[in-house]
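Action item from last meeting closed. Structure (397 res):
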């Protein structure tokens, strides 16, 4: 039996591939952050610095590149589906505005202390970017759907034209520009920095909103469109990347061997996310969606169920895994005899001792353990959300 639009939005008729894809990117995001906490190379150099990295580290980082774009796109899709559920443009706009502000608040005051080690700095990262996307959608959702989709595509394909505009050249306006398109310090002398300039992420959220009607189509039509769109995005990525003409401020080049040349080809820019970065990540996500729906039974079915659970509790998972990872890393360092002052000095100098942390392979082990620990906590919270629909504020967690 084909579910109508209203049925498709009811909890028991949720599209499993959306929750599973969201859960998958949450798990991969945990890998990225556990690596930050437990692999000392994180402090020494960027995992995409081809002069210092190694293939296992680079590819670990590359796989986790898929997280933020996919989650932001699905936030846009979810916004559209919520609008179809409430059938009230004003209510949708208010919800998106308050949800966006809430995410920005969480990033500034709940997540930032982890990355700044409690030094009182505000580091605007993933939740800031998604929050800005939802704030923008609060206005864009009032436009015709094609206009919102057009705005999203225009930002995604056109924002690299702004690569030559740098905050350092704009004087007092520079920090404000950093909020939009160039990493840098916060405005008004607020201590901290912008890690995720917002403009491209607004484009991704608007694209997701514009794609929303696709998820009310039949499975056959939806999967066909996702396969076609994902393949087209990847082909366009290869063509534009090979040309080195447009789409990323960091050109690729021949390296010492074929493997590192491939890594150079894949070494696209995340801060802010370039057109090529978004093509390869969102193209891959589009191809993954239909496959996640067909996970079947047995081991794959149980894995799909776990991903579905994480996808239903993403914000809870996100904040909890950060504090769990940071606490475990701190406990390990203290158990090894390091002091808080030592850890702060390592972070500031980017020169921890060789034995600090557990290495990349050890970080993978900790990541797997963390995911197992998070599963029962997320299952409990999902149960609370399911039972207590009378608590409106649970929709913000």
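Sequence:
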């Amino acid at each position: 039996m084909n579910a109508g639009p209203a049925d498709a939005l009811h909890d028991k008729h949720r599209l499993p591939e959306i929750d599973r894809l969201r859960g998958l990117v949450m798990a991969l995001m945990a890998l990225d952050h556990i690596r930050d906490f437990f692999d000392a190379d994180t402090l020494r150099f960027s995992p995409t610095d081809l002069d210092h990295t190694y293939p296992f580290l680079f590819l670990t980082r590359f796989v986790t590149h898929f997280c933020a774009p996919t989650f932001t796109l699905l936030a846009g899709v979810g916004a559209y589906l919520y609008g179809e559920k409430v059938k009230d443009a004003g209510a949708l706009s208010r919800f998106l505005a308050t949800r966006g502000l809430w995410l920005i608040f969480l990033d500034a005051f709940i997540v930032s202390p982890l990355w700044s080690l409690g030094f009182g700095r505000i580091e605007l990262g993933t939740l800031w970017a998604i929050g800005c996307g939802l704030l923008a959608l609060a206005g864009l959702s009032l436009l015709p759907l094609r206009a919102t989709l057009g705005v999203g595509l225009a930002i995604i394909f056109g924002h690299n034209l702004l690569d030559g505009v740098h905050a350092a050249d704009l004087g007092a306006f520079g920090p404000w520009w950093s909020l939009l398109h160039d990493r840098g310090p916060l405005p008004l002398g607020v201590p901290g920095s912008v890690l995720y300039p917002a403009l491209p992420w607004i484009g991704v959220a608007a694209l997701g909103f514009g794609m929303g009607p696709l998820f009310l189509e039949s499975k056959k039509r939806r999967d066909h469109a996702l396969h076609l769109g994902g393949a087209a995005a990847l082909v366009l990525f290869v063509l534009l990347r090979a040309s080195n003409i447009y789409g990323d401020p960091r050109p690729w080049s021949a390296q010492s061997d074929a493997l590192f040349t491939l890594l150079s080809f894949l070494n696209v820019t995340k801060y802010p996310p370039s057109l090529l970065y978004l093509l390869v990540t969102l193209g891959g996500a589009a191809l993954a969606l239909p496959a996640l729906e067909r996970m079947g039974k047995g081991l794959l079915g149980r894995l799909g169920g776990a991903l579905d659970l994480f996808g239903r509790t993403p914000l809870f998972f996100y904040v909890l895994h950060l504090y769990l990872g940071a606490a475990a890393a701190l406990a390990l360092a203290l158990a090894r005899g390091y002091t808080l002052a030592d850890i702060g000095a390592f972070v500031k100098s980017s020169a921890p001792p060789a034995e600090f942390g557990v290495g990349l392979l050890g970080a993978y082990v900790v990541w797997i353990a963390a995911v197992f620990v998070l599963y029962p906590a997320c299952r409990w919270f999902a149960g609370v959300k399911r039972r207590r629909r009378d608590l409106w504020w649970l929709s913000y967690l």
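Note appended to the action item: The longest helix spans residues 359-387.
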